Structure formats: C-alpha cells, structure tokens
Amino acid sequence: MYRIGNGYDIHQLTEGRDLIIGGVKITHEKGLLGHSDADVLIHAIIDSLLGALALDDIGTLFPDTDPKYKGADSTVLLKHVYSLIKSNGYEIANLDSNIIAQKPKMMPYIPKMKEILCKILGINFDQLSIKAKTKEKMDAVGQGLAIEANSVVLLKKI
Ligand SMILES: [Zn+2]
Prior knowledge:
Strands 4-1-7-5-6 form a five-stranded mixed β-sheet. It has about 160 residues and is of the alpha+beta class. Helices cover about 30% and strands about 35% of the residues. Zinc ion (ZN) binds near residues 9, 11, 38 and 43.
C-alpha cells in the first residue's frame, strides 16, 4: 500500500533574520521571515508527509498564533511529524524536493541538508533528493524577495 503527498511553502526574505534551509544555516545578508525559524524546505517536506496521509496541514498542527512555536526549530517539528507518520504505519519510500531561490547558491549546502534530513527521517541518501532552482529573475522569488520550496513524498506501509 502506497500513499503520495505533495507540499509547498514560501517565505519572504528580510533583513535581521538567519537564513535556515533544510536545517542548515546559510550565509546570506537576509533570512526568511516567519513565526518559527521559517525553514521553507522542511515546511514543504512536512506538508507533503501530512498530505500523503490526508492529515492536518502544518499550519493546523503548529499554529503561528501559538507562542510555543515562536522561533521553533523546524527539525524538531519534522521529527514530531515523522513519528506521527510512523505511528500511522507508514515510512518513506522516497522523497523528492526543490528549493527555488534566486540567491544565494544552495548547491554548496545540499550535502549537509541531506545528511541532517536523512538522519531525522531514518532514510538513505538514495531515498532523498534535494534540487536547487532559480526563477530566472522573474517574480518575487526571482527578484530575491522570497524563497520557495516544494516536496513530493511516497510513503509505503510498514
Ligand atoms: Zn513555512
């Protein structure tokens, strides 16, 4: 028995915030704005996991009105969500994701992101894909105002 899920997220880039994507702190003059650490990739991954089992979305599970999640480390949220998936009797077959950012370059950070995320999810490198794209200077992402991410995950019954 397989279930597929897709997740999407976008956060605005702003001064005075750390840029954290895929659990990795990235050197950049701006960071992503959000109630939590605004880790756009992990948020997209979380929504794909929840979507695959038709569970509540990330905003319902971790409301941005709840002070408990202010500045929350998204890797902790991901751990919680994956334990939920496993308690429902599923595990990841494979996960494919994109980070869409005009700058900075994501490529140098992807190996570290994969290391962190594979460890949390208990999967191998060949089960996790993280790709980096730009928006060819078009729209808000292309103008460096925001960063987007999306994720597709296939879950299989344990
Ligand atoms: Zn988010």
